[in-house]
Write a structure and sequence with these properties.
By secondary structure, this protein is an alpha+beta fold. The protein is about 40% helix and about 30% strand. The chain has helices at about 15-50, 50-60, 125, 150-174, and strands at about 65-75, 85-90, 95-100, 105-115, 120, 130-135, 145. It has a seven-stranded antiparallel sheet with strand order 4-3-2-1-7-6-5. The longest helix is centred in the N-terminal third of the chain and has 35 residues, at about 15-50. The protein starts with 13 loop residues before the first helix and ends with a helix.
């Protein structure tokens, strides 16, 4: 149903599907742990009598469940002929989401968990300026998108790397 946050992912094998599910469950567990840490930090700051600004700064530091970046990118679709399709993307709750419009409703079409991903600027391999390659150990091939200019590409790369780094920090703490 388009009004729900539902994501469709496909896997070639049962092992791949189970690995995706484990990755998603790990992401959810990390988000719950982060929420618990956030609540504890708020209680601690309030108990110390910290200012509202200090409490809000602490909350912002501990909030991963948010939209980090959104906008239009070209997505490379490999087939008999490689095509580039303009899609709306967001980095939300640890996922890179691409959206699709159907019957005047917009809903997530693809979701890539960013935990364990690596991000590269990739203009040479794609022969397209401002392209970004996202490599996940469970993807058969890299997921490639292209920004409209260098500034936008740099912002997307920074947002992707920031999100990935948050999971690295959380994973080290768990």
């Amino acid at each position: 149903h388009p009004s729900l946050d539902c994501y469709h992912m496909s896997a070639d094998t049962a092992e791949e599907r189970e690995a995706w599910i484990a990755d998603i469950n790990h992401t959810i567990d990390s988000m719950i742990a982060l929420q618990d840490e956030r609540n504890w930090a708020i209680e601690e700051a309030a108990g110390k009598g910290d200012s509202a600004e200090a409490v809000e700064a602490k909350i912002n530091d501990l909030t991963l469940i948010q939209i980090r970046k959104m906008g239009f990118l070209l997505r490379r679709d490999d087939g008999v002929i490689t095509t580039w399709n303009k899609k709306f993307f967001s980095i939300r709750n640890g996922f890179l989401l691409s959206y699709k419009e159907k019957e005047s409703e917009v809903y997530p079409e693809n979701a890539i968990p960013l935990r364990r991903c690596q991000v590269y600027e990739n203009a040479q391999a794609t022969k397209k300026n401002f392209s970004i390659e996202i490599v996940h150990p469970l993807l058969a091939s890299p997921y490639v998108v292209c920004a409209s200019n260098k500034e936008d590409m740099d912002e997307w790369i920074a947002a992707l790397k920031w999100t990935i780094k948050q999971y690295d920090v959380q994973d080290a703490a768990l």
